[in-house]
Design a protein that fits this description.
Layout: E1 2-7, H1 19-22, H2 27-41, E2 44-49, H3 53-62, E3 70-74, H4 83-90, E4 96-100, E5 122-125, H5 130-143
Parallel strand pairs: 1-2, 1-3, 3-4, 4-5
Length: 147
Amino acid sequence: MKILVINGPNLNMLGKREPSVYGNITLKKIENIVQKKAKSLNVDVEFFQSNHEGELIDKIQSASESKIDGMVINPGGYTHTSVAIRDALLSINIPFVEVHISNIARRESFRHKSLISDIALGTISGLGPVGYIFGLEALFEMYGTKA
């Protein structure tokens, strides 16, 4: 099984950015934790982060050609604004889990609406970095034996 973990804008700043909201953990540390869990499940995992909407769309679109079985995606601020990312996710037939480090329902009102939650396999919000692990485990449990 091969899982793609996609992170959107500003997530490269984890550890520096708003520690009261996101904590002090870096994206690299999250990737290391996910990689360790993936190894224990015998799952291949690939990571991608970009601050650019078009690059995120290109990566999503190329996932089917890369034989990706599932995705964990944290679109960052694009969660609330990008119809284009939604359309890219709809254009491929790959299950995905939406993940947010913070609880978007407890934040500013403009963050309450996700443009991808209704097309995601599930959404994990507010559980910090462990949400990525839960997303990986959900994909493995639901699709790992089919890959």
